[in-house]
């Protein structure tokens, strides 16, 4: 099997790398295994890619260690920055191909995939700008001592990413890690390996030295677990489910106590007050849950509507949702494509059944869309009580639950009644309500009169069981640096 293959998508034909990218080389896995990635639109295999096992993780970690202590340590911060900026430019130049790969492999609409690529390049460019602005402090203690801090790279970073935003997650991880002088072994999700491999070819073109970025395709229980428990990986950054996040933390604890950052699940409340601009609120609520087919960790899946507008809200929300075009990701007007896999499709349909069985009312949807591909109708449940499974658990699909509230306190209490704390939103025209409620919601991000607005400049991450640490913005730099205090004695010996 050669290590690239030609792939035709409805929008572009391109050369897809299928090997593992280790130490600047394209190689097969040591165990000689491959696995197929499936097109969720037609359920057919796209291509088989080489699979990394624990031995390949070892080789990639050694390459990353060698680069960390060698070529990367000798690279000026400003040069690191220029490479990241160049990589961002290459993302922009290759936007049509990168977006087509995402639509093919993940099923997201091409227009949304292009927005993902643009957001990814913006993120890489932003961290390119930070590379030569990483510095510590001078701390005065007494005239006889010079104290300063250095923000040094943590070292070899293992990065494990999910399938819902393959390129965006790739950039959120690689941008800050490289800006601060670390090297990386990144494992893509087994459902969507293709765009990460293509992006590796752009790392080569950007002049990033061999071994600094290593990209592996493989499964969580083998390659992912090997990264999390590796004795020579200094840090692991993970985005994915809360259940796997726990195993990553355990693996770090049982191995070398590597630093851990986690961006995990959510069950985010979206609260709409009587005085909200109802048309705008519905537009954001619709985007909050149905964007990316509900496959967002921050999806606004619990919708609390104040009693004065509850009936009107439901009717208008249903009418708005009916306008979401579900279908072929490559079709011009598509908003919602298929779910990523059979497994996700089955999980979501099981939740829909649980909602129906528990007596929640299906306002719209609740069934498969079409007869092939993993398509699910946008689904709205009303009359959902807090103890129902569909109100408690992360569904990760185009399914939301609406509930009625009377008072502000009741909305805040219900909004916080979850083990998660990734995001929340409040819709109101009263500034005081907006500020009071935002302050009381226990979530890493609170959107006021919008939803899902994410910027590379603004930190993102979870309270409670939604994660540890923050990605994006200046805050992410702290996750990729460790502080060294240097204390220089200028005067005479202290004692005698
Ligand atoms: P999902 O259930 O949405 O697929 P996961 O949390 O299972 O989300 O997967 C997110 C990422 O974590 C993927 O790259 C996957 O391969 C990886 N992963 C899954 N299980 C493990 C594990 N035990 N150790 C390390 N990584 C894992």
From TrEMBL:
GO BP of this protein: acetate biosynthetic process
E.C. designation(s): 1.2.1.3
CDD domains with a match to the protein in the record: ALDH_F1-2_Ald2-like
Pathway in which this enzyme or protein is active: Alcohol metabolism; ethanol degradation; acetate from ethanol: step 2/2
Catalytic reactions on record: an aldehyde + NAD(+) + H2O = a carboxylate + NADH + 2 H(+)
Gene3D superfamilies the UniProt entry points to: Aldehyde Dehydrogenase, Chain A, domain 1, Aldehyde Dehydrogenase, Chain A, domain 2
Active site feature: 263
Keywords, sorted A to Z: NAD, Oxidoreductase
GO cellular component terms given for this protein: mitochondrion
Domain Aldehyde dehydrogenase: 26-486
GO terms of molecular function: aldehyde dehydrogenase (NAD+) activity
Family, similarity comment: Belongs to the aldehyde dehydrogenase family.
The protein, known as: Aldehyde dehydrogenase
Organism the protein comes from: Endocarpon pusillum
């Amino acid at each position: 099997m050669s290590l690239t293959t030609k792939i035709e998508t409805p929008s572009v034909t391109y050369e897809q790398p299928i090997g593992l990218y280790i130490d600047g080389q394209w190689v097969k896995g040591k165990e000689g295994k491959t696995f197929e990635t499936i097109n969720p639109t037609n359920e057919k295999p796209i291509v088989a890619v080489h699979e990394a096992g624990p031995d390949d993780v070892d080789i990639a970690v050694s390459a990353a260690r060698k680069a960390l202590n060698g070529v990367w340590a000798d690279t000026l911060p400003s040069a690191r920055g220029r490479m990241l900026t160049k990589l961002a430019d290459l993302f922009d130049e290759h936007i049509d191909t990168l977006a087509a790969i995402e639509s093919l492999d993940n099923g997201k609409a091409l227009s949304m995939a292009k927005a993902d690529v643009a957001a990814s390049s913006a993120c890489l460019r932003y961290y390119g700008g930070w590379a030569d602005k990483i510095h510590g402090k001078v701390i005065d203690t007494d005239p006889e001592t010079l104290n300063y801090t250095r923000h040094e790279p943590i070292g070899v970073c293992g990065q494990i990413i999910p399938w819902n935003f393959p390129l965006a997650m790739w950039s959120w991880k690689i941008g800050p890690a490289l800006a601060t002088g670390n090297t990386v072994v990144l494992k893509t999700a087994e459902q969507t390996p293709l765009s990460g491999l293509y992006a590796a070819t752009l790392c080569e073109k950007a002049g990033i030295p061999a071994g600094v970025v290593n990209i592996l395709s493989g499964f969580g229980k083998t390659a992912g677990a090997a990264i999390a428990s590796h004795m020579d990986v200094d840090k692991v950054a993970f985005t994915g489910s809360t259940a796997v996040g726990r195993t990553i933390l355990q693996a770090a604890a049982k191995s070398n106590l590597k630093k851990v950052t986690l961006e995990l699940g959510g069950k985010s409340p979206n609260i709409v007050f009587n005085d909200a601009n109802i048309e705008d609120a519905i537009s954001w609520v619709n985007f909050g849950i149905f964007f990316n087919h509900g496959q967002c960790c921050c999806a606004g899946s619990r919708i609390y509507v104040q009693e004065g507008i509850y009936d009107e809200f439901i009717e208008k929300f249903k009418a708005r949702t009916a306008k979401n075009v579900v279908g072929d990701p490559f079709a011009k007007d598509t908003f919602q494509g298929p779910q990523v896999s059979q497994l996700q499709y089955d999980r979501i349909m099981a939740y829909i059944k649980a909602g129906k069985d528990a007596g929640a009312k299906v306002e719209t949807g609740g069934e498969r869309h079409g007869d092939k591909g993993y398509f699910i109708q946008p689904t709205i449940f009303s009359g959902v009580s807090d103890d129902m499974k569909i109100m408690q658990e992360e569904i990760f699909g185009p399914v939301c639950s609406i509930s009625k509230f009377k008072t502000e306190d009741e909305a805040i209490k219900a909004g916080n009644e979850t083990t998660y704390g990734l995001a929340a939103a409040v819709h109101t025209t009263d500034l005081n309500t907006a500020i009071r409620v935002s302050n009381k919601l226990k979530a890493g991000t609170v959107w006021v009169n919008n939803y899902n607005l994410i910027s590379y400049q603004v930190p993102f991450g979870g309270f409670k069981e939604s994660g540890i640490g923050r990605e994006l913005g200046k805050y992410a730099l702290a996750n990729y640096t460790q502080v060294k205090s240097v204390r220089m004695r200028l005067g005479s010996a202290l004692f005698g």
